[in-house]
């Protein structure tokens, strides 16, 4: 079902020096499924993370926020099958216990472990199974296990998501590799369901939060499947500092910009992969809004379009029912919007001019674009110079099937 | 498909003195379909109306807003099959031309006619067919044609929507009858797709806008099917002033309160009928949020739940996947929400206590409620005394089918 998204090949994913990955089958919800992943860091890594803004955030998100204040993160532990969200104080106890268990094996402090969970909400986390599975996960740890990790964090994903690149920093080639998961309950607000991005470049720890924030803003925070912001969104950026170049101490330095651009390239591909693998997706849709007074205003309109069930079902049907897009622009909440300045394009086809149908528009041109697997909707608001872009997918029968059957 | 909604019987719908209705088949989009309705008012009626807040509002909505400033509305003309929205200046010309044509037949001024359109967006209104159909519609006009009118304004509705009641005002029994239509693109913001409510009670014209606003706020503005606010929402309240009691000059008077309560009863049933007949609906869901700091905050949370595709598909599946409701509460946008004070009920089943699963909650209890056709979701925010309620329906395969096939 995924739209133009191939599974990664293990050989294409660069190992990141100073980081190993192990995966185990812990039977958390179902047997014979990779559902427990550890990422082990050598001492001295820099780590930043951003998390869901959902006020009903999961227990592991709360623990991550606390532990990220620690100086030397040494491990991440990720389980699928259970989100440990809506689980109250007992959920917090179990998230902390997961960290304690892994820390004991690694002989580090529990605060040096970051926990992540994804899966069903409001069910107790099966701590015993996680504890029992940790030795196998640790024993499995190797630098070239990125593909296994991408598989180990999947839930309703149909394709594992991992991308890799490299960039020269201070004369040295450094690796960048990342993984993500997520297909439904996707409208990241700070980060995606789960995303992990690592480089062996050297980055000063104080930069990491800013780096994670800026990367998330320009990648995961522009993706939406169904408008449902998850309780568990987490995005973590790791610099293992194993390269020999001088540490980057400013994102505005030449090296800082080069590294950030390379990281963003991978982060964007990871975020778009989530949309391409969106539950039931048959099309990948880029919604670009231009001519707004601010980026926020452009995003507001773009999300109204991207979340409209009527627009999404029209894309599924390849039906150029473009009035539905105009209606979404109109209800996006911009109180002083003048419909008389609005233009609409589907790829290169100019559909609406100043709020009305373009006299030159022919239905067969709209139809041609709507039949594509990749479509750009472009809206001109005609009231300013700001622009922004959001990625989404269509809304199919399969989305209903997946979400009506998910737990059964 | 409609949830506990029977078609009205013509004999149950009270005529409203001073008002006649005629319906014709004008072939606006499809042949052999009632698609043109006129409501003719004797002189001296009081009329108020509220309209969509969608900035991309349809041409007839703009014309209605202008004409409502006229002192003596004499007719309403309603077509289906074409929304006359996203049609630019030419759309305005055609909406005005419709009024001119009907006004000529009735020998009144065009400003005394209110036009309404519903159907496909961004297609030119076939003015010639409307003009050609008007004589038949006018010739059909009778006081007891309310059911015909309810049928004449249907689009994707599966059941005509009409309700009637009576109330004693100043010692005299007055009639109240209303009709509405709408099944998709339903998230009224001021009013529903189309709603018309008439009484032969006597109400001073200056009260009518306030009355229309207050009725819409407590009825149509609490209904949502898919979160898509239409370009054409219109709700009109008519008092034909044919009763003999002294005119109502205050909504706070004893008579004013009695009339408003009776009008609201019919308006609520009309609004709920739209949700019951929501596209693909198999369940009618009442979302009540209590314990908020303001009504607006409660509505914000209620709409987040009512619009979540994940919540709506879980209802379709009768799956008590209640974490999805908590997630929606969490992303509703209340920045200082504390998950530790949140409670959740499904009808009488207490599901979540202070943000976590109720230890006494049993899955089979949730399952029992989820299988019902009528379900109340009740959320306690635990931070204030305000409450509000929203009505919605589930999200089924049928919704996707209807909206993927609507134009073809």
UniProtKB/TrEMBL annotation, chains A, B:
The protein's matches in InterPro entries, at most eight in alphabetical order, are given as: Arg_biosynth_ArgJ, ArgJ-like_dom_sf, ArgJ_beta_C
Chief location category:
cytoplasm
Main EC class the enzyme belongs to = transferase
Q: According to its UniProt record, where is this protein located?
A: Cytoplasm
Q: Which residues cross the membrane?
A: none
Residue numbers annotated as active site: 192
Q: Where is this site: Cleavage?
A: 191-192
Which residues make up the annotated site Involved in the stabilization of negative charge on the oxyanion by the formation of the oxyanion hole?
118-119
Chain residues that bind substrate: 155, 181, 192, 279, 403, 408
Q: In which pathway does it act?
A: Amino-acid biosynthesis; L-arginine biosynthesis; L-ornithine and N-acetyl-L-glutamate from L-glutamate and N(2)-acetyl-L-ornithine (cyclic): step 1/1; Amino-acid biosynthesis; L-arginine biosynthesis; N(2)-acetyl-L-ornithine from L-glutamate: step 1/4
Per UniProt, subunit arrangement is:
Heterotetramer of two alpha and two beta chains.
Q: Which family does it belong to?
A: Belongs to the ArgJ family.
> Which protein are we looking at?
Arginine biosynthesis bifunctional protein ArgJ
Q: What is the lineage of its organism?
A: Bacteria, Pseudomonadati, Pseudomonadota, Betaproteobacteria, Burkholderiales
């Amino acid at each position: 079902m995924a739209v133009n998204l191939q599974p990664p090949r293990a050989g294409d994913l660069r190992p990141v020096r100073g980081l190993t990955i192990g995966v185990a089958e812990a039977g958390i919800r179902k047997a014979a499924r990779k559902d427990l992943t550890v990422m082990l860091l050598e001492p001295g890594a820099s780590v930043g993370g951003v998390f869901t803004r959902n006020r009903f955030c999961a227990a592991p998100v709360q623990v991550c926020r606390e532990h990220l204040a620690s100086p030397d993160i040494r491990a991440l532990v990720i389980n699928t099958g259970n989100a440990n969200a809506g689980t109250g104080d007992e959920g917090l106890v179990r998230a902390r216990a997961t960290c304690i268990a892994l820390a004991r094996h690694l002989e580090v402090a529990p605060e040096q472990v970051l926990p992540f969970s994804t899966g069903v909400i409001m069910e107790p986390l099966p701590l015993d199974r996680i504890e029992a599975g940790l030795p196998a996960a640790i024993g499995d740890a190797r630098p070239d296990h990125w593909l296994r990790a991408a598989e180990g964090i999947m839930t309703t994903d149909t394709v594992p998501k991992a991308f890799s690149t490299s960039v020269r920093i201070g004369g040295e080639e450094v690796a960048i590799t990342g993984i993500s998961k997520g297909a439904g309950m996707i409208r990241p607000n700070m980060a995606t369901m789960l995303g992990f991005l690592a480089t062996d470049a050297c980055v000063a720890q104080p930069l990491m939060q800013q780096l994670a924030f800026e990367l998330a803003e320009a990648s995961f925070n522009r993706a939406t499947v169904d408008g449902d912001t998850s309780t568990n969104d987490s995005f973590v950026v790791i610099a293992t500092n194993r390269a020999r170049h001088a540490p980057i101490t400013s994102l505005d330095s030449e090296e800082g910009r080069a590294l950030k651009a390379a990281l963003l390239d991978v982060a964007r591909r990871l975020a778009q992969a989530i949309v391409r693998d969106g539950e039931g997706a048959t099309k990948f849709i880029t919604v670009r809004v231009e001519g707004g007074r601010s980026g926020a205003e452009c995003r507001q309109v773009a999300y109204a379009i991207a979340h409209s069930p009527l627009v999404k079902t029209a894309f599924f049907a390849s039906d150029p029912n473009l009035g539905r897009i105009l209606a979404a622009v109109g209800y996006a909440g911009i109180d002083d919007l003048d419909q008389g300045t609005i233009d609409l394009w589907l790829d290169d086809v100019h559909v609406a001019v100043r709020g009305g149908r373009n006299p030159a528009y022919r239905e067969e041109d709209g139809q041609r674009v709507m039949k594509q697997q990749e479509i750009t909707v472009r809206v001109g608001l005609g009231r300013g110079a700001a622009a922004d872009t959001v990625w989404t997918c269509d809304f199919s029968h399969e989305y209903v099937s997946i979400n009506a059957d998910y737990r059964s």
